[in-house]
Amino acid sequence: MDTLTRRTIHVIIQIPDGNLLKGTLLIERNSRLSDVLNNAKDFIVLMDYEDKAHIINKRHIVQAIELEELKIN
Fold it and tell me: Which residues does residue 2 pair with via DSSP β-bridges, in sequence order?
């Protein structure tokens, strides 16, 4: 859900066991994914496409990719 100060981005996040988590992150409107991953907070909340929240320690993110378009495979 986008607001005046925040926007939703679609991402794929790889964790150390090789699994890929697909979903959305709510970030500040003028931020980038790299800004979110580099800020002082240790955790992010990923909402998957089944509306389940995943609280992820950023130290356990192997790779994070912002998707330009929603493509669920």
Answer: none
Domains with residue ranges and CATH for the chain: 6-67 (2.30.30.100)
pTM above 0.70, yes or no: yes
Per-residue pLDDT of the chain (73 residues; tens, 9 = 90+): 788 899 999 999 999 999 999 999 999 999 999 999 999 889 999 999 999 999 999 999 999 999 986 555 5
Contact of 13 with 46, CB cutoff 8 Å: yes
